[in-house]
Write a structure and sequence with these properties.
CATH architecture of the largest domain: Up-down Bundle
Strand order of the largest sheet: 2-1-3-4-5
Strand content: 5-15%
Distance between the termini: 62 Å
Number of helices: 16
Largest sheet: 5 strands, parallel
Mean pLDDT: 83
CATH superfamily of the largest domain: MFS general substrate transporter like domains
Oligomer: single chain
Radius of gyration: 27 Å
Helix content: 55-70%
CATH topology of the largest domain: Growth Hormone, Chain: A
Structural class: mainly alpha
Length: 494
């Protein structure tokens, strides 16, 4: 493997976790001075590049573990990589498993390809040797009942499930926010958005807390002890009971949706040719970006949700580097940011008016600066209020801007279509900023350096958006003031 290969951060982390797990006493029965780990990756053939990344990631993880003192629970035993090459062919993968078994490996890591992983893990099962799959999406790999096989990443089925949930969210979001402009006058939009954001975040936090309890022993025992008269549900495990309760809650939420009053807005029929939606969508997107207030609110909300979508990963990386936190501990700090966002959203609903929305743009610049300021914090008692403040600024920023975007979108093209455009731009920004952060870390930049770069980009773009609005006020003052007057008056549209 040449030194110029760029290593995926995700692969390295996965390989490292796999190597650490396989070194645990529960996997290995003996405590040799050196523990051989068989690396079954395709480093030649059509999958050579990706397989090479996997091998290199494992080797780096092994080196790091050995440098830290080896497997401490096993008397400091060192790890040794036993290199294999499946040559991108399933039958060779099997033969490499057999060869490495003869070489005395205690565990395997591989195989990148599901086609290779399926027979290779079957071969390892004959010797009851642990096999950690770093990449391989086929669900059949872990559904065959092989007790020696483990996988780090989600499989194809889980990805499909998440995609279906995402499609549902994409359909529901325009309806949830778009209906506000149909039910309420302009003067109430900021207040309504504030409460929606606050309650949504509160429900997410509550859901996490309740979800943990639902699979706990106390609640599980109660749920399984509850019998429905004359009905055999067939539910006999805690997770099944928890899922049934969640389905019931979803049904209750659906019933609440039926109580929303009819706004009287006529539904647009779907075109027979769905491809006809593309030019319509592009036209709506262009119309919002060309509107002198729509472009400002759309760019601000797009940037905000792009930051929010990636902030959790930044907090996790920063917590590990600055505080030495595990992923579980760091997750609680992500929740702290959410609490701040909910508070900021509610405060904005009480203090801001629709025509004042553009006044909050300096808060976006402050958010970027605060993100960079995370590098100077190494105490959790300072970090917690700092992250609450960061979240509160975001909540206070997004609520009036979101309301302004709904208002302009409603007047330009209808509520639902404008929210769909907004969601598209927001998701694109999440991917772009996520790619920027991954690229920074993938190029070898430290967590602190990547956080600095991320915060600088956010602050800079928010400054550019503010300058954009200031230029509109100078060069298109008559149009901007007319649109702001429309926002002040519940009876006017424009």
């Amino acid at each position: 493997m040449t030194s110029d290969v760029r290593v995926s951060r995700r692969l390295i982390l996965q390989a490292g976790a796999a190597t650490s797990a396989l070194g645990a006493p529960g996997f290995l029965l003996a405590h040799p001075a050196t523990i051989k780990i068989g690396l079954v990756h395709p480093v030649s053939g059509g999958l050579a590049y990706s397989g090479g990344q996997g091998r290199l990631g494992c080797q780096m993880a092994i080196d790091e573990i050995n440098a830290a003192g080896g497997i401490k629970s096993m008397g400091g035993a060192k790890l040794e990589a036993a290199l294999g090459d499946s040559q991108s062919r399933p039958e060779v993968g099997v033969s490499e498993v057999e060869r490495l078994h003869q070489a005395g490996v205690a565990a395997y890591v591989g195989c990148f390809s599901s086609a290779i992983a399926l027979p290779a893990t079957q071969a390892a099962a004959k010797y009851n040797t642990p096999f950690m799959i770093d990449v391989g999406v086929s669900d059949q790999i872990v559904r065959r009942g092989l007790k020696n096989v483990f996988r780090l990443a989600p499989g194809f089925g889980k990805c499909v499930d998440d995609a279906i949930v995402g499609l549902g969210a994409a359909a529901y979001s325009p309806a949830k926010y778009g209906i506000l402009t149909e039910l309420l006058p302009s003067s109430q939009l900021v207040k309504a958005n504030g409460w929606i954001e606050g309650l949504t975040i509160a429900s997410i936090i509550l859901g996490v807390l309740i979800g943990g309890q639902l699979v706990g022993p106390n609640v599980t025992e109660y749920l399984l002890g509850f019998n429905m008269p004359l009905i055999d549900t067939g539910i006999d495990t805690g997770p099944e009971a928890a899922i049934l309760l969640l389905i019931s809650l979803y049904a209750l939420a659906a019933w609440f949706n039926t109580r929303i009053p009819n706004t009287g807005v006529e539904m647009r029929p779907m075109p027979k040719n769905l491809m006809a939606l593309l030019p319509d969508f592009w036209g709506c997107n262009s119309r919002l970006w060309n509107d002198k207030l729509g472009q400002i609110s759309l760019s601000t909300t797009t940037l905000f949700w792009g930051v929010s979508g990636n902030l959790r990963y930044i907090v996790l990386a920063w917590s590990a580097a600055a505080l030495g936190y595990s992923t579980t501990q760091a997750s609680s700090l992500v929740g702290v940011v959410a609490i701040g966002t909910a508070v900021g959203a509610v405060v904005a609903s009480l203090r801001m008016k629709l025509h004042q929305a553009t006044l909050v743009m300096p808060l976006g610049i402050a958010m970027g600066i605060l993100v960079m300021g995370m590098n100077f914090i190494d105490n959790v008692w300072v970090a917690a209020p700092f992250l609450i403040l960061l979240g509160a600024l975001g909540g206070f920023l997004v609520v009036p801007m979101n309301a302004l975007l709904q208002h302009r979108g409603h007047n330009l093209m209808g509520a639902g279509r404008s929210i769909a455009v907004q969601n598209f731009n927001e998701q694109a920004c999440i991917l772009l900023l996520g790619g920027l952060y991954s690229f920074s870390t993938g190029m070898g930049m430290s967590a602190f350096g990547a956080i600095t770069a991320f915060g600088f980009v956010v602050a800079s773009f928010m400054w550019l958006i503010k300058r954009w609005h200031d230029r509109n006020l100078r060069e298109h003052s008559e149009e901007v003031n007319r649109l702001l007057d429309v926002a002040k008056n519940d009876n006017h549209h424009g």
